[in-house]
Amino acid sequence: MDEQRSTVTIPVRDAQLPADLMLPAEPVGVVLFAHGSGSSRHSPRNVAVARTLTGRGLATVLVDLLTPAEDEVDTRTAELRFDIGMLASRLAGIVDWLAAERPAGDVPIGLFGASTGAAAALVAAASRAERVGAVVSRGGRPDLAGAALAQVRTPTLLLVGGLDEEVITLNERALTELGDVGELWVVPGATHLFEEPGALDQVAEHAGAWFTTHLARTTAAPRRS
């Protein structure tokens, strides 16, 4: 499938954030990625998942939620990368940008979060329920979403490695908070980073099916005034 790749700078309220866009010829949706602490938009795992989604006709946006200057400072302090509220606010701002600027066209929006990025994605989904049509968490920490978890009304898929026992427990608890909108899928034999042969392929396939199914039921929401 033909695709266009570009790097853009996305303005949010208090920052200019670098992002990589992959656009298939006729996108049916766009998925915004939120990476985990200590990672970046160049995460090989998220890039691999993004390529699979693009092959399904989904545009993808891999973004750094910290500016280069913030990331340099945070390498020493590790404060901002765990500030779920701030990260979620920036994600919500990018969702608004996608809805207003429409780099992928007038298509529904999904969120893909890994590790702590999953918590930020869930908080953002709760605050932008009219714009976010689906969420996928990979090895996520949905517990860090706090009270926002119970406010999520967006179909949410929790993907966890079968050997990642502590995170399985956290996701099972989160599932009770999500209720009918949540679904948990355990990838057998996989650890937290899904480094085992074929494990990440399963993540990408389940994520792709989830997004194409649920975003197909969503129409792009009207712009905010």
TrEMBL record:
- Hydrolase as UniProt keyword: yes
Q: Which residues form the Dienelactone hydrolase domain?
A: 24-200
Asked if the record carries the keyword Transcription, the reply is no
Q: Which keywords accompany this UniProt record?
A: Hydrolase
Q: Which domain of life is it from?
A: Bacteria
InterPro entries in alphabetical order:
AB_hydrolase_fold (IPR029058), Dienelactn_hydro (IPR002925), FrsA_esterase (IPR050261)
Q: Which family, according to the similarity comment?
A: Belongs to the AB hydrolase superfamily.
What is this protein identified as?
Putative dienelactone hydrolase
